[in-house]
Fold these 2 entries.
Entry 1:
Amino acid sequence: MPASFTTGLDPSSHVLRNSLHDRGQRLTPQRERVLTLFERIGEGSHLSAEEVHQRLLRSAERVSLATVYRSLRLLSSMGLLQELELPEGGRRFELASDTHRDHHHLVCVGCGRTEEFENPQVLEAGATAAQSHGFRLLECVLNVRALCPICAAAERL
Amino acid sequence: MPASFTTGLDPSSHVLRNSLHDRGQRLTPQRERVLTLFERIGEGSHLSAEEVHQRLLRSAERVSLATVYRSLRLLSSMGLLQELELPEGGRRFELASDTHRDHHHLVCVGCGRTEEFENPQVLEAGATAAQSHGFRLLECVLNVRALCPICAAAERL
DNA sequence: GTCGATGCAAAGGCTTTGCACAGCC
DNA sequence: GGCTGTGCAAAGCCTTTGCATCGAC
């Protein structure tokens, strides 16, 4: 589990601004706040729209919930965020950094605790499947549903 | 890709009735209709609640949508149906037969076409991950998002 | 006959959208 | 200054639920 921080060298506003420009769109404080939030909390965090909204409010960064939804969609379509489908807990988003690609999720169905892991064989399996059907691979998502030690113990009562 | 049929020997009503009895619940025509529908259409089909409802209406088997939802949840919790989370197209269900376990889905994000495949390495990857975190493995779900040949060609225009 | 299941319609999450105004470029 | 983005509130979708009635056992 790498705990590397993104070096604070690039405020990423430049990246964001340029990406937006290329699409004829604008850099607004709201969009920056949403992206910055994900950078602040680190790579392994999975937030729902509601949580993003709450956290921004707490740091006195006012963004309406509607705009949070719009920004999450936009940033995902730009490849800066990654949308997750963890069955438990609805739609969530995480930062999509280069050092953090191709990881998968181990989710406790009891308490929601989520661990990440990597395994190149998964991508291989997906690539093989795509190839054998003539599909062009886009993304390979493995969700492992399980019980964490605590919830597994509670279950046995 | 096995295309095996379930032999029509057991109307599965017995299985259903017994499973329900064990939980102090009843075999109703509605529950039977929902399960039978899935058996009729075969193993590889993924239906949403709305589709189940529509198909039952078409064959003049009246079941309210609310009951379809209730039955889908019940049959899933009994292990007779399997709930899928294919990001495209919302919650869907398929028959959970023994010959059909541990398969994964290759989904075209363009048109929704879905192919199934098996690969034991995926389960292995999930088991390894679960073990390394001390989790008890329940289920391993791989979704491969891709473009089918037709949609990939359309994309290049 | 009892108690669980159904149907209907209403309520409930979560997400998107229409519109007037604000503010980025 | 033009035109995109925002905020607000309303609408939309999917799913669940309350309640009276029905029907499996």
Entry 2:
Amino acid sequence: MSLTDLKFKIDPNIKTPMWLQIRNELFDCLYKDILRPGQLIPNEKTLVGLFNVSIGTVRKAIGALEKEGILIRKQGLGTFVCQHDDRSFLFKFFHIFFNDSDVKHIPEVELDSFKIRKANKTEMKLLNIPKENNKVFHIYNKLGFQSKVHSVDKIVIAAAKFSLLTEEILVNRHNTIYNLFQNKFNVFITHTSERIKATLVDKKISQMLGIEMGTPILKIERLGYTYHDEIVELRTSYVNTTEVEYIREQYSLVGE
Amino acid sequence: MSLTDLKFKIDPNIKTPMWLQIRNELFDCLYKDILRPGQLIPNEKTLVGLFNVSIGTVRKAIGALEKEGILIRKQGLGTFVCQHDDRSFLFKFFHIFFNDSDVKHIPEVELDSFKIRKANKTEMKLLNIPKENNKVFHIYNKLGFQSKVHSVDKIVIAAAKFSLLTEEILVNRHNTIYNLFQNKFNVFITHTSERIKATLVDKKISQMLGIEMGTPILKIERLGYTYHDEIVELRTSYVNTTEVEYIREQYSLVGE
DNA sequence: CAGTGGTCTAGACCACATT
DNA sequence: ATGTGGTCTAGACCACTGT
């Protein structure tokens, strides 16, 4: 099924601007899997014919999706659906830096454990898991640099959404987890929310981090969202901030 | 001095697009104090005459500054310079929420101490303070809700940039500190960067927070920037995350 | 080279807010 | 009623990319 096979009706008389209608139609194509991450979308002229509007209107719709991080325009090439292989997307949601350094380091990731188990109530609610098929994957990753672990990530995802995921697939991936989600399971993480607390490390995590029990660490609870604000990943990061820091730069973009 | 009194020359033949040239000219007006926060800028038609371009080009320039959080368009009214009184700007850089709550609470702020002292080396470097006139204001604020303190902010700013600041002015402000910076000292905070660590609270801060020494807390080091990436504020926040959390929502905006 | 998106024009008409 | 920004048109030309 290709986008150009579809017929769209854009109504100039309703309250919603035509460019927003087009933006929503294109967004739905992502959701409905007619467009996939990395794919080239039809050029502007084709879209003009498809939606029967002028080129400026198409450009406004594409511009909106570009701002949202859904599409990316490349002059001379075309407009593509963003993916987690793109330079700008890799480690987009990774915020750990070395002390006083402005350079994001790419962490070494090592799988610590991989389990399948029943979801608890919170997980069932957040991940929208039905009672009948309530299995989740439960993963522990160790993150570090030069064999020095600074973080432990606990990841919980619905087994139904990531069926056929195995420890082997997870270990043998050659990219980020979000890239794996995208390519093998067609789940594209669009945005995240994080809640950060300071706690004393417990026994289990202290062993994984290789630090003394009772050391203060960051506990970061992340929700990973995909299209239409659907939560698909629960991640808890435990960070030993002795040698690294959590960084946030905030420009006053109104949207944020 | 008004914007409409000036003459601008936009060159269509150079590499920089005309809309970017216009964006830069308008930005410089902010920096040079020809435009001030809250002020209404000339309407689009006037700008068309001023820059001698078509209206679409002006709109693109304004759109860029709007995305940056510098200008805000209000249909039917005009385009204004953003200020820290605007709904969307108030507490834009405040990220503390109650546990599991999605509502940002507006904290009660109480001045704890106000001092003037010499800057140390780091402060001189970051705030670009000369050797001759190297005084800084050193402020401690307590933040909380219903008389329960959850955070302590240590603020350091150059005395030269905020001359005439007194404890009284600080206490009697009826708005955020960034609003005070903007209105009394003409310093507009455009963006910030924060580096977060987990630490054990020391004696001084534990007393201010009213908690036991050795409790784990967040230590957040913030740099506050104004136009042209000039650092004007050093702020260290110490947060007791027993009842509150630090929150970050990240949409995949390419710019961030 | 042909095809892509990026810039720019010179309007028209609409929705919204104030007077 | 007037003036503001918001939407939309129907093009032209430029800059960039891969063949």
